[in-house]
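My main concern about presentation is that the manuscript never shows what a single data entry looks like. In essence, backbone conformation is discretised, so a fold becomes a row of integers matching the chain in length. An entry of this sort, consisting of the sequence and the corresponding backbone structure tokens, reads as follows:
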Amino acid sequence: MSDLDIDSHQHYGPDAYKDEDVLRELYHEKGLSLREVADVLGVVNSTVYNWMDRHGIDFRSKKEARPGGVSFHFDVQGYPHLSISHGTSTSQLRVHQLVAIAAGADSHKVFSEGDYHVHHINGMPSDNRPSNLAVVRSGDHIREHGLPEGFYGPHERHPDGRWKEER
């Protein structure tokens, strides 16, 4: 029995993820997320999504989803992030930044909008041990990675104030 007070897929049967009534009950009546429905039914999120879509079951908008909360994911560059939802907006924090601050780094440097970077010493963006992180000036970080002078990463601002994607 889970903390959601729902007996796992054994209660619903092995093909319950195909059953429109079961999907509606779990998603709309009990208010579970797609991930929670998938966990209860013993399948992956995309299976639940595909069957709900086939049955024409309406999905909740982000605004209707549970307000507040934290989720964890990896971005396209392999950096682990925390997404923190509050009201209708979401903040993204990179885990290595939080670990650096927890290990004693100056938060003003860590969140300096490009003046400093938190560098992964071994080059692995998912290795966030404090001993693998160093707060360095952005120019030094860029040189460390052998990038051309004046390079601005995808999440950094150019001195003219525009994001890389805007230039």
